[in-house]
Design a protein that fits this description.
The chain has about 210 residues and is of the alpha/beta class. Helices cover about 45% and strands about 15% of the residues.
Amino acid sequence: MKLLLTFDLDNTLLNSDKAHVVAYQYALKKLNLKLLEDKDIYIHFGKPKQDVARAISNSSNKEIIKNIIKYHDIYLWNISYKLSRVLPDIKNILQYLKKKYEIAVISNCSHKSIIKLLEGAGLSKKLFDFVIGDNDVKHPKPWPDELFKAEKLAKENVLYHLGDSIYDIKAARRAKVKCIAILSGHYTKSQLQKEKPFKIIKSIKELKKIL
C-alpha cells in the first residue's frame, strides 16, 4: 500500500491569487461594498473563506458574508478560474511522487472550486487520488478535518502535509501530522517558524531530497 501525502492548493500547487481576487472584487461590487486593492484581499488567503469575507467586508453580518462567498464562487466557477496558473515544477514533482505515494489535495476552497482552478491552470485532476474541499468536511483548516477525511478515504495515515500558510501547519499539528511548509505564499519564514512545522523549504523541488 502506498503512503499518503496531502497538498494544499492555493500558493502551494497553484498561483490562483488573481483568480480569487477578481472574484472577491466582483462580489464586493455586486453588494455595493468598498472595493479593495489586490494586496488588501490576498493577505487574508489561507483563512477559512468566511473569515476572508468577514475581513474584506469589515462586517460580521451573516447575510453579507454568505453573499460575498456566493458571488465569489459564481464568478470564479464561470470566469476567473481561467486566471489560475501552475507554480514552477509542480507537474513534474507530482508525476514523480505519484509513482510511490497516494496524493490528496485539500483546500479551504469548495470541492468544485478546486476542480475549476485545476482546470484553469491545466493541471490534471488525475494526478490526485483524492480531492477534498471545505464543503466535504465540517470544519476547514486550521481545523484538522480535511486531513482526517484524506486518511479515511485512503485508509492510511498522512505521512506529510505540504502547505504555504500558518493554517496548514496548525491543521497538521492538530491532526498529529508532520507539516512541510513551503515559502511559495504570502507568509514569511519567521511567521511559519512560529508555528513550528517539521521543515520549511524554499521550493517544491526540495521534496525529492526529503522523500
